């Protein structure tokens, strides 16, 4: 067992990652009032902040891994406690030092997979582009406008591969010049950074930046809001600046410019879920909705908690790679809200949300109203 890190060293790590903001908290509890955990289980950000401010060794292991970094509490905090950055500091300490008893990161297998194959699934790097084999998608070269980065989920997960396929078909239909890197691309590293493994995040980021720069990449198109967050907001820490575009932004632009024409009516009601890292963290709210409105005979209904107030699916902060008991899954609450709107399709634009909603859909009563879970690219591709 490694020795406990000196308190001064711990304090320096916390300060570097914003954790010194813990001392600004005056325990008003606003963070707990908006936290999704208060709808499904037991977790208190207020309590975590209090324990961290008083003495790190008091913190319970489970608590530091519960936050999904959904971004709700920083928006209502009157003292700018920086809950996400502070929580990441605690996780980094738990990852690097034996500070909290038994508090090592709960996803060591994911970290090992990232180091070995560049993806959290541990699938062979050589198979990263297999989803595109039958689509005529080319390898990126500097003459192309966009590097399309589908991300790990869309490259390896059977359900998510259908989203990558729909995306490529839309881009081809619109005549967009794009290519992929395939095995030369690694995970963006967003989730592993949120779980405290800063060194691994930096390694992945540098690998991708080198791959992008040597190939002359200027614009990066992504399907995952988590990739968007890394490439747009975190890679500039390494002096790497690319124009980063989420697929919902580009699809709306292509529809508005007439480069995509939708003729096939859907004939269904749809409700759209705002992913935390697309909406609340990065301000992309209207483009996916406006894109869906181009689909003939589609009725769009709003969820009760939408846009800036959207309810988290539970996949952020690295929790997509952690096991969550069924009775504590945010996605169950969100799916029930979607069913209550009367919509036939729950649409979103994030692979983590898709994965969690598909899992929750399996728990719906067989004799109750059913609902499909689809990415907006799948809906729009089917309307071509």
Shape: globular
CATH topology of the largest domain: Rossmann fold
**Beta-strand percentage range:** 5-15%
What count of structural domains? 3
**CATH architectural type of the largest domain:** 3-Layer(aba) Sandwich
Q: What is the element string, with H for helices and E for strands?
A: HHHHHHEHHEHHEHEHEHEHEHEH
Name some characteristics of this structure.
384 residues; alpha/beta; Rossmann fold; 3 domains; four-stranded parallel beta sheet; 16 helices; 40% helix; globular; disordered N terminus
Give a quick precis of the structure.
This protein has 384 residues and is α/β, with parallel strands linked by helices.
Would you spell out the secondary-structure blueprint of this structure?
Elements: H1 7-16, H2 30-34, H3 45-54, H4 72-76, H5 83-96, H6 108-117, E1 146-149, H7 151-156, H8 158-173, E2 178-179, H9 190-194, H10 198-214, E3 219-222, H11 225-234, E4 243-246, H12 247-256, E5 268-272, H13 286-292, E6 298-301, H14 330-340, E7 345-348, H15 351-361, E8 372-375, H16 376-382
Parallel strand pairs: 1-2, 1-3, 3-4, 5-6, 5-7, 7-8
Helix pairs in contact: 1-5, 8-16, 12-13, 14-15
